[in-house]
C-alpha cells in the first residue's frame, strides 16, 4: 500500500511545485538558462527549441507530451476480461474493477546531442519518457490496485525545417524509435516496438502533428498482441489550439484498414486556466486502446482533473 500511495504523493508534489513556481515566475525567469526544468512552452517551435527560442543546452528536462491528473475518469464499458490474438494473453476470470478510477500521465524529454555537434546531418538527438497510469483509487474492496500502467521510453531524431508559406510554419521532421509496454507478465502482458515518422506544423495559435508508424516484427510465439496495429493504428494526427486561457486539442488514430479492420480512436482535451491558481482539464476518449491492456476494447471515457502541461 505504501508503494501505491507514493505515486499520488509524487504527483501531488509535481503539481504543488508548479503552483508555487507560478506565483513568482516572470518572463525573465522563464528564459533563465540555468533552470533545470522548464514548463511554460506554448508552441512546437519552443518545445523543440528551434528558431529564436533560447536554448537550454543538453541534458535539461523539457516538456514532451501532456502532464495531467484526472481525479475521476469514468468508462462506459470497463474491460474486466482482457483478450488477445495470442491465447497465452487471454484473462480467464473477470477482474472486479470499478467504472471510475484516477488517471495520470507524466512525460518529459532531454536533448543529449545538439545539431551543432552533428553538422554533417544537422539533427538534434533526444531521449524521452512517458508514463500513463490508471489507478483504481476508489476500489477499497480490492485494495485500490493500479489497473494498468504504460511505460514508453523513446529515442528521437529531430531535423529542423525552417520553411514557411505565409503564416504556416513547417517546424520539424522527426524519426523515433519507441518501446511501449505495461510491464506485466502473462496473461496481461502487452508490448510493442515501433519506428515512427512524424512532422510538426504551426499556424498562428494552431499546432499540427502527423505521424506514421511501423511495428517492428516479433517472433510469433513471443508476440503478446499480434493484431495491435489493427486497433491502436498505423497513423495518428494531433490538432491543438491555444488562445489566452483556453487550450483544446484533438488526437485521432486509425488502423488505415477498411471493412472489419476499420478501427481507431479519438481523444479531445480541453484545459481552462484560472491564472495563478489552477488549470482545469476535461478529457473525452472514444474508440479502441485507451490503454495497452484495452488495445482491442472499445469504450468511451470521460475524465476531469487538473493539467500541468498541455500540447
CATH topology term: Outer membrane phospholipase (ompla), Chain C
For this structure, the quaternary state is single chain
Provide the low-confidence segments as ranges.
1-7, 15-38
The CATH architecture comes to Beta Barrel
Structural class: mainly beta
- From the spread of the alpha carbons, the general shape counts as globular
CA(first)-CA(last) distance: 33 Å
Mean pLDDT: 86
**What is the number of E strands?**
13
* Main sheet specs: 12 strands, antiparallel, barrel
> Quick one: CATH class?
Mainly Beta
Strand content: over 45%
Helix count from the secondary structure assignment: 4
CATH homologous superfamily designation? Phospholipase A1
**Helix-strand sequence:** HHHEEEEEEEEHEEEEE
Number of domains: 1
Radius of gyration: 20 Å
Strand order of the largest sheet: 2-3-4-5-6-7-8-9-10-11-12-13
Helix content: 10-25%
